[in-house]
Automatic annotation (TrEMBL):
The keyword Glycoprotein does not apply. GO terms for biological process: protein quality control for misfolded or incompletely synthesized proteins. It comes from the Bacteria. Belongs to the peptidase S16 family. One of its GO terms (molecular function) is serine-type endopeptidase activity. Residues 684-872 form the Lon proteolytic domain. Keywords: ATP-binding, Hydrolase, Nucleotide-binding, Protease, Serine protease. It catalyses: Hydrolysis of proteins in presence of ATP. InterPro entries: AAA+_ATPase, ATPase_AAA_core, Lon_lid, Lon_proteolytic, Lon_Prtase, P-loop_NTPase, Ribosomal_Su5_D2-typ_SF, Ribsml_uS5_D2-typ_fold_subgr. It comes from Candidatus Sungbacteria bacterium RIFCSPLOWO2_01_FULL_47_10. This is endopeptidase La.
Length: 883
């Protein structure tokens, strides 16, 4: 039966486009082919020789020649004939039996550069070839065969034969055999990194359990498919590769042969019992071969394993005297278990990793502390300017340690804005004590396993950060800095990292810290823990209770100037290669020069171009100046400062490159001056406006509260600008506003004679609305702003205030952050700072230099605060005298 190539191509296109099914039917009829039917398979099919032999109930992806794909597209079926080399013939075998398959296109059915097509093949029936003819395509493609076939029926098994041949018993034996077959593959293939599939085994076993005479043939077909599985192919390739090596460490002498001929005989065999016997023989042969391979692996593995096991024992013997009892039990159990494992197995690798962690922890490795209380302050002062309280606390700890070596280490928490030296002071403390230093940042951590580790049941499990750090440091008593502890996340799907940290920082628990991976306790009491945070309010109370807080205030102007001169400028000079021993100067490429930044320039950089609690931004600005100097030197190929930039003093010395107020604009543009954005207004404030000084994560800031009102049918207060993102914040600001209103109108009676009605719409807003705000310390400023608005009197120029307002008491209650607030007020140019008298003791922490730059006014009551804020308001004095 011949058809034109054009007709076949049209039919093939219809086959690969399922939406054109109607076109496909029409093209079939035009080509004279049988009608399509789900159960119909044409009597004449293309026949292809293949080394892939499968049985019914199996579906695979297969590649067929492009020349025959046209015919397959028409019939949607084909015959696969077992191909093997017959030693009795010089030609390819002309197989008489094969498998009829249904064919469907794959998602990707082309192979670029190859004349083949991928198809999905589902094996349906055994068949016998009646006759075949060779077809030669008109376009010169390779010839193919079209074969007439008939279905090969199985010989029935009667009940007498079923019992006499003990078929049920033999099926149970076959069940056990393929179970062993599957287990052996599970042992062999992972050794060489090959995957293991169990789907065919499970399907065959399920059928073997429930087979009877009518389903015996189907069961044996499914069982025979196991001999064509990927597991067998992988094992066959592995053994062949190992045997072909010049050095075969496993000593393989057996191989898994190809079963194409044997499987072809199974296809041709009509007797079901004969096929059962053949399958038993084939499975037994494969089982024996794989057993030999596994035995060879075990022998080689045992020799290497014995040496490794002895190595673990030797390490354990050296360290067990310093290990606690629970650690000894776990390690001994693991050493005993690893001694019975195959070194190529995944479990062996996991056990070896566990022993490596457990035996390499610093069980008895300590550094000797420097106890010289005169040398330690010198080292701390060498690295940091100021910070007397943290330094004094460390010195006290060392002194107490020298009297009692068993005293528990303190758990310190450095609280302060960024850039004030919290982290770097921790490094200096470690250097002063002579201890190892390690820092971890826990900001954003939400998974408790980051702290406590993963359990060993998980793939890739490892200890948490605490134990991992102890191994890296290699000492039992390091200085351990936990940075950003206020940004540690709470509960979640992976547990609470905050709760996990409680065990680490609790003096009652850290003597026996249990990591989930190790599953035994490790003593952390010798570690000097130092934590850092920007905001104490963000630390959970339970965690806060376990730490000793040391507050880092903002640096004042002179402190920043000293730090810049002693630390920042030398660091930036070295970073940019401007020191006398740098490569450019040492090699004579440029003449050595000294870069000098004058004190007046430092005053400008600190006072006008940075507004921060620490010195990080100052460090960046100095670095910007140095980069400009380097660029100028490189651009002019000279280290001599241009004459246009030089002063008369500098002109006398060409070896000096000076940055002064006159030429500063050539290094930093005037737009960089940001102090005006943070300073108090130079003009008197409008009525209804009062400044607020607040503590923030960056130190402190100045903003304003503004009040406006209009008549209304009822009393209504609207507050805006306190938080743009979270409505939960701002609650304390709203409470303070209501208290200020009620105090002025009802409790004090200060506004009763002004003709202001209480039923008004009052709008209170806070400037810098993009920044979240909350807290009680704005209460006194709200009182001043409202009184200013209703009396039409401006707040005293240059005054900033802080304190919590009350209602009936009329008192000003204490607030936090006094040191940072005073420093911020000075930076902003304030003249007076009004604060609660209850905070007077905190003034001892404010440097004298800072206190000399501002008038600090202590007040007990809000009436006193109003007197200070409105000294020339006759209405206020009349209202007070009439009370």
């Amino acid at each position: 039966m011949k058809h034109s190539e054009r007709q076949y191509c049209q039919i093939r296109k219809a086959w690969y486009n399922p939406q054109q099914s109607e076109v496909f039917e029409n093209r079939q009829k035009e080509a004279g082919m049988p009608a399509k039917h789900p159960t119909d398979i044409p009597e004449q099919l293309p026949a292809i020789f293949s080394q892939v032999v499968c049985f019914p109930e199996r579906a695979i992806q297969y590649v067929i020649p492009a020349s025959v794909s046209n015919v397959v597209a028409v019939s949607r079926s084909m015959i696969l004939l077992p191909y093997f080399y017959d030693e009795d013939s010089t030609n390819e075998n002309s197989a008489e039996f094969g498998m009829v398959c249904r064919v469907s296109p794959t998602t990707r059915n082309t192979h670029p550069g190859r004349s083949v097509v991928s198809v999905n093949v589902s094996f349906r029936h055994r068949c016998r070839i009646e006759r075949a003819e060779t077809i030669y395509p008109e376009n010169g493609e390779p010839a193919y065969k079209l074969a007439y076939w008939e279905k090969l029926e199985d010989a029935p098994v009667d009940e007498e034969t079923w019992n006499s041949a003990n078929v049920p018993g033999r099926l149970k034996g076959l069940f056990s055999l393929i179970q062993e077959y599957d287990d052996l593959f599970s042992q062999l293939l992972p050794v060489f990194g090959a995957p293991v599939s169990h789907s065919l085994f499970e399907s065959a076993q399920k059928l073997l359990k429930n087979t009877n005479r009518s389903t015996l043939a189907r069961t044996l077909d499914m069982t025979a498919n196991i001999l064509t599985s990927k597991n067998r192919q992988y094992a066959q390739e592995i053994l062949q590769q190992v045997r072909s090596r010049s050095e075969n460490p496993f000593g393989f002498s057996a191989s898994i042969p190809s079963l194409t001929r044997e499987l072809a005989e199974l296809i041709a065999e009509r007797s079901v019992l004969a096929r059962l016997e053949k399958l038993e023989t084939l499975f037994k042969a494969d089982v024996e071969t794989i057993k030999k391979a596994i035995t060879a692996i075990a022998e080689v593995g045992g020799r290497s394993q014995s040496g490794q096991s002895n190595s673990w024992k030797e390490q354990y013997e050296q360290k067990k005297n310093n290990m606690p009892e629970d650690a000894k039990k776990e390690v001994e159990k693991e050493i005993d278990r690893i001694g019975r494992m195959n070194p190529q197995s995944a479990e062996y690798s996991m056990a070896a990793t566990y022993l490596d962690w457990a035996l390499n922890l610093p069980w008895n490795d300590y550094t000797v502390d420097n106890e010289d209380t005169r040398e330690i302050p010198r080292i701390l002062d060498q690295d940091h300017h100021g910070l007397p309280k943290p330094k004094q606390r460390v010195i006290e700890f060392i002194a107490a340690k020298s009297f009692n070596s068993g005293i528990d280490n303190p758990i310190l928490c450095f609280i302060g804005p960024p850039g004030v030296g919290k982290t770097s002071l921790g490094k200096s403390i470690a250097r002063a004590l002579g201890r190892k230093f390690w820092r971890i940042s826990v900001g954003g951590i939400h998974d408790e396993s980051e702290i406590r580790g993963h359990r060993r049941t998980y793939v890739g499990a490892e200890p948490g950060r605490i134990i991992s750090t102890m191994r890296r440091v290699g000492k039992r008593n390091p200085v351990f800095m936990i940075d950003e502890i206020d940004k540690l996340f709470g509960g979640g799907a992976q547990g609470s990292a905050r709760d996990a940290m409680l065990e680490v920082l609790d003096p009652e628990q850290y003597h026996n810290f249990v990591d989930n991976y190790l599953e035994f306790g490790f003593d952390l009491s010798s570690i000097l823990f130092i934590t850092t945070a920007n905001n104490i309010e963000s630390i959970p109370p339970a965690l806060r209770d376990r730490m000793e807080f040391i507050f880092f205030p903002s640096y004042n102007h002179n402190e920043k100037k000293h730090i810049a001169r002693e630390f920042l400028i030398p660091k930036q000079l070295a970073r940019h290669g401007l020191t006398p021993d740098s490569k450019m100067f040492r090699d004579g490429l440029l003449e050595a020069v000294t870069v000098n930044i004058t004190d007046s320039v430092l005053d400008v950089l600190i006072g006008e171009m940075t507004f921060e609690a620490g010195v990080r931004e100052l460090d960046r600005v100095i670095g910007k100046v140095m980069r400009k100097v380097v660029w100028k030197m490189k651009n002019q190929n000279s280290s001599r400062q241009p004459n246009v930039e030089r002063t008369d003093v500098a002109a006398e010395d060409g070896a000096v490159w000076e940055i002064n107020e006159r030429n500063l604009s050539l290094y930093i543009e005037d737009a960089a001056r940001i102090s005006k954005r943070h300073a108090l207004s130079e003009d008197p404030l409008p009525c209804g406006v009062a400044p607020i000084v607040a503590v923030s994560d960056t130190g402190g800031s100045i903003f304003y509260v503004e009040a406006a009102y209009r008549k209304s049918e009822k009393r209504e207060i609207k507050i805006t600008g306190y938080n743009p993102h979270d409505e939960k914040l701002g609650r304390m600001l709203r409470d303070s506003a209501h208290k200020a209103w009620d105090f002025l109108f009802r409790e004090s009676g200060l506004l009763n004679n002004l003709g202001v009605e209480e039923k008004i719409y009052l709008h209170i807003t806070f400037s810098n609305g993009g920044i979240a705000k909350d807290g009680p310390s704005a209460g006194i400023s709200l009182v001043l702003a409202l009184y200013s608005k209703f009396t039409n009197q401006p707040v005293r120029h240059g005054l900033v205030a802080t304190g919590e307002n009350t209602l009936a008491l009329g008192k000003i209650l204490p607030v936090g952050g006094i040191t940072n607030k005073i420093t911020t007020a000075v930076r902003a140019g304030a003249k007076q700072f009004l604060m609660p008298r209850a905070n007077e003791a905190e003034l001892a922490d404010v440097p004298e230099e800072t206190k000399n730059q501002i008038e600090i006014i202590l007040c007990d009551s809000m009436i006193d605060a109003l007197k200070v804020a409105f000294p020339n308001c006759p209405r206020l004095h009349d209202a007070i005298s009439n009370q």
